[in-house]
Amino acid sequence: MKRFSNIKEVLVSLALMAVTCFAQEAATIITDTFDGEAGSTAGQLNRMRVGSSDKLLWEATPNVKLTRSNDRGCITTTSASTALVARIKLPPAERRITVEAELQPESTEGKLAWMGIGFGKSSLGNPTFGGLCVILRTNTTYSLLFNPDPEDITAAKVINLKSGPIPSYRSHEMIRVKLTYDVEFGAISVWINGQKEVSGMDLKAKKITPSLTYAGISGYNQEVGVPCASNFGVAID
């Protein structure tokens, strides 16, 4: 144990501890396990309260619905041919933002499908969020993408920042993905199934400054009725 030579050192140490505790408590944590009752039209996620928040509501395309799998809450889609998007409005982030979820990409009719998480500023129907996103494909690969155009719903202007194989991939099982953006340094990191795939990539050097207006889940060609996402969370400080 550290010994203090005078009362001044004790007071300084206590002050630093207090600042540290305050900084930790200042973080905003938003979570949703999708266990809420299907209180909106036909169980649609749109306009439903975000699980841990008293004020935030989900904004979602009409094909996103609540479901259950293995006794836990999930979301699914009612239309494979239309992109699914579910997002929440973000409070201001001064230091960093982390978005995470469990995702399960499942293809329909042999087509390539994907699920992803991300943040940005775009129209609701834009599955790449007009910003940064990580997508997981049914061919067992992932990509970290940036879309500079909020209105580019066809992803024609998407920039692939990094791609690779999904670590510890298991068919028909949820994949844990986490995306952290350091606001001050403009650096992005990605974890998939607990493995760090992108470590502090310098976005400033690439002249990329993403908007932090919305965060959420998206996908395309997802099999109808199959659970595709669960345990969504955002941490902001």
Q: What features would you describe in this structure?
A:
This protein is mainly beta. It is 8% helix and 41% strand. It contains one helix and 15 strands. The strands form three sheets. A seven-stranded antiparallel beta sheet has the order 2-5-14-7-8-9-10, with no helix packed on it. It is globular. Residues 1-5 and 8-26 have low confidence and may be disordered.
How do the helices and strands line up, and which of them pair or pack?
Elements lengths: L6 H20 L1 E5 L26 E2 L3 E6 L2 E6 L6 E6 L6 E8 L10 E7 L10 E7 L3 E6 L12 E7 L9 E8 L4 E6 L2 E8 L11 E7 L8 E8 L1
Antiparallel strand pairs: 1-15, 2-5, 3-4, 5-14, 6-11, 6-15, 7-8, 7-14, 8-9, 9-10, 11-12, 12-13
Name its key features.
single chain; 237 residues; mainly beta; Jelly Rolls; seven-stranded antiparallel sheet; six-stranded antiparallel sheet; 1 helix; 8% helix; 41% strand; globular; disordered N terminus
What is the CATH class designation?
A: Mainly Beta
Q: Give the H and E element order.
A: HEEEEEEEEEEEEEEE
Oligomeric state of this protein: single chain
Task: Give the helix level as a range of percent.
Answer: under 10%
Compute the average pLDDT: 86
At the fourth level of CATH, the homologous superfamily is Exo-inulinase, domain 1
Number of helices: 1
- Please state the structural category: mainly beta
The dominant shape is globular
How much β-strand is present in the residues? Answer: 35-45%
Order the strands across the largest sheet as they lie in space: 2-5-14-7-8-9-10
Total strand segments: 15
